[in-house]
From TrEMBL:
Protein name: Protease HtpX homolog
Record-level Gene Ontology MF annotations: metalloendopeptidase activity; zinc ion binding
Entry's cofactor comment: Binds 1 zinc ion per subunit.
Membrane topology note: Multi-pass membrane protein
InterPro entries: HtpX_protease (IPR050083), Pept_M48_protease_HtpX (IPR022919), Peptidase_M48 (IPR001915)
Binding site for Zn(2+): H140, H144, E215
GO biological process: proteolysis
EC number of this enzyme: 3.4.24.-
Species this protein is from: Streptomyces lincolnensis
Recorded name of the encoding gene: htpX
Major location (coarse): membrane
Keywords: Cell membrane, Hydrolase, Membrane, Metal-binding, Metalloprotease, Protease, Stress response, Transmembrane, Transmembrane helix, Zinc
Length: 306
């Protein structure tokens, strides 16, 4: 079933190109490991196992890591009411609604398809946002589900995950067991580590580029669905400002899931790091929302610049 969220052909093309390039990288990666390790059965079983686990259990992993729990309507009636209204407006299945008991104001969507999706918000977000702002954030997260980019990011991430695991395994094996290996084994480990590091670096850049674009696409879709881009802009400004005041040490646990968040769990705006960031800059997002607001003829909000 197709939702009423505004389609984004450029996002679809970028997702297809990213998956194609990562697919090629995946074939090369597996082939190189088979040649180096001389055991295709072991390589295929491990890689397939990690991919399957990440695809089927990514939502549970994310929920567990972020201490999210499913909440019923009786416990959070206003939150459910907003999700119900947006799903009816977008003509899409209602996802599972969850809440994470964290002060960091944020939200994320996860799940392999619209029928198996979860939208989670933190208690810090619920406490800080006005109803219209919360609606904008939830519309943003629901658009990720409707565009199916959550599943694409989940699948795309697995190659980098397994490559990173192999790099760490090879590194610690060399550190703690290097003295007991012959020269051929050492060369093999170095080769595996080199291939895995290269694959991790390339997949990292491809996924980050797609992630930045999908955030802009979600902002656009949410703004058009609700008709109130200024409310989403207000939520972005408020959440980004509050996250910047949270100590870095308190954000570190959450940073592993930045690609799924409404705003990244970082305490600063990216400079040169923007090329490695999961999200576009706040200024870029606000500028886009300002343009949409002008196109829709939305009255300027008090205190809103631009």
């Amino acid at each position: 079933m197709r939702s009423r969220f505004e389609g984004d052909r450029r996002l679809a093309v970028r997702m297809a190109v990213t998956m194609f390039l990562l697919g090629l990288l995946y074939v090369v990666f597996v082939g190189a490991l088979v040649v180096l390790m001389k055991s295709w059965v072991l390589v295929v079983v491990v890689v397939a196992g990690v991919l399957g686990a990440q695809y089927w259990f990514s939502d549970r992993i994310a929920m567990f890591a972020m201490r999210g729990r499913v909440v019923e309507r009786e416990e959070y009636p206003e939150l459910h009411a907003v999700v119900d209204r947006l799903c009816a407006l977008a003509d899409m299945p209602k996802p599972v609604v969850a809440v994470s008991n964290m002060d960091m104001p944020n939200a994320f969507a996860t799940g392999r398809n619209p029928d198996n999706a979860v939208v989670c918000v933190t208690t810090g977000l619920l406490r800080r946002l006005e109803p219209a702002e919360l609606e904008g954030v939830l519309a943003h997260e629901l658009s990720h589900v409707a565009h199916k980019d959550v599943a694409v990011i989940t699948i795309a991430s697995f190659l980098g995950v397994i490559a990173g695991l192999i790099v760490r395994f090879a590194f610690y094996s060399q550190v703690f067991g290097g003295g007991r290996r012959d020269q051929n084994t050492a060369v093999l480990f170095a080769a595996v580590m080199g291939v895995s590091a290269a694959v991790y670096a390339i997949s990292f850049l491809l996924i980050r580029a797609l992630s930045r674009y999908r955030e802009l696409a979600a902002d656009r879709a949410a703004a058009h669905l609700t008709g109130r881009p200024s409310a989403l802009a207000s939520a972005l400004t408020k959440v980004s400002g509050d996250i910047a005041r949270i100590p870095t040490k308190d954000l570190r646990t959450a940073q592993a899931f930045n690609a799924f968040y409404f705003t990244p769990a970082t305490g600063k705006e990216p400079g040169i790091e923007r090329f490695f960031s999961t999200h576009p800059s706040l200024e870029q997002r606000l500028e886009q929302l300002g343009q949409i607001s002008t196109e829709l003829g939305e009255p300027a909000s008090p205190g809103r610049s631009g």
